[in-house]
Amino acid sequence: MEKRQIKVNGILKDISLLGFGCMRFPTKDGEIDKDLSTKMVNYALENGVNYFDTAYPYHDGKSELFVGELIKKLDRNSFYLADKLPIWDCKTKTDVERIFHEQLEKTGVEYFDFYLIHAVNKKYLDKVKELDLLKTLEKHKNEGKILNIGFSFHDDLETFKKWVEVYDWDFVQIQLNYMDIYHQQGIEGYEILTKKGIPVIVMEPVKGGSLAKFNEKIEKKLKDYNPNDSVASWAFRWVASLPNVKVILSGMSTLEQVEDNINTFSNYKPLNKEEYIIIEEVRNEVFDLSKVDCTSCGYCIPCPYGVDIPGNFRVYNNHSMYKNDGYVKWMMEEMSKRGASADICVDCKECVQKCPQHIEIPTRLVEFDNYLLEKGLKDERN
Ligand code: SF4
Ligand code: SF4
User: Fold this and answer.
1) Which DSSP string do the residues of 139-160 spell out, in sequence order?
2) Is ligand 1 within 6 A of the CB of residue 354?
3) How close is the Cα of 161 to the center of ligand 2, in Å?
4) What is the pTM assigned to this prediction?
5) CATH number of the domain residue 67 falls in
6) Which of 246, 273, 299, 348 is the most buried (most CB within 10 A)?
7) What residue owns the CA closest to ligand 2's atom 2?
8) pLDDT tens figures, 129-152
């Protein structure tokens, strides 16, 4: 197992480059399939994985409990545990303390090696100050209940830069993969952290599974070069080839995924020049499959009728590139709930003049709505 070094509590430690993300354990009858999940975790442990990442909301709060069951049999010095504070659930300082102690109790540990403020964005910049949150986390660090303090992030680059300056972080967790180099904080965020000497932990290296399967033509390109390697392994190796990435999280749901990832990280080789070129070609081919040249600039919104114009186009492009039906259905349900789906458009044309890309917005929204119907991603026209 490839290991990288991170200072934990000020001392350099060897940590497995593959981290076990505990948010997508296999389930049976709506509950974590404990037998299969235990088998997967044991296989990972036997093969050198020593980093586990859970969070308060994963599996409706049951991930922390299950992780607690798994690790109670292990020597506390043999693994590193990351947990996260759901900042959205913290209205007062008392909430922070209550949730933190609940997490220690659920996982059964006396300390978290890595503790993150979970999924921060613009709106939590003020909240972190209002709650004096970092003082509380630092107090727990001084008490030995937290060894490293960090945050995980989902927002734009400008917001990311602000978050990086909020505190002297021990590590930061970002979403990064070869298709998302300009998405959220993107690769520039990685470079900022590297310049500041902050270790990086990466989530969604395979973009929620989207980079594990492509159309035949793209897969052939990858298989022709590395016949024995999985499509997903290219995505992991792209991230792993960034030297300041210290842990790559994978939310594994099957034993086959664990085996494949162990294989990638046990026989790890950084990408060579030819492989970088192949990934560049794949990236371009996947982008060519997108439908609308929307840059998500937001100049066209708000729509007086509530349509989330860039949101609909993002989903449209996402499906045409990755064919991830589950994600699109879920996104469209969310969009419908907030009255923002494409079928709300009344063709008033108010948005059209505002689009610097000259997109015929209402026409393309109708096209997207028809696409959803054709693909069976929507039951009926509203
Ligand atoms: S044309 Fe449709 S999307 Fe554009 S502003 Fe009017 S209702 Fe909104
Ligand atoms: S103005 Fe055009 S490019 Fe910008 S978000 Fe709207 S549709 Fe997309």
Assistant:
1) HHHHTTSEEEEEEEE-S-HHHH
2) no
3) 24
4) 0.86
5) 3.20.20.100
6) 246
7) 355
8) 999 999 999 999 999 999 999 999
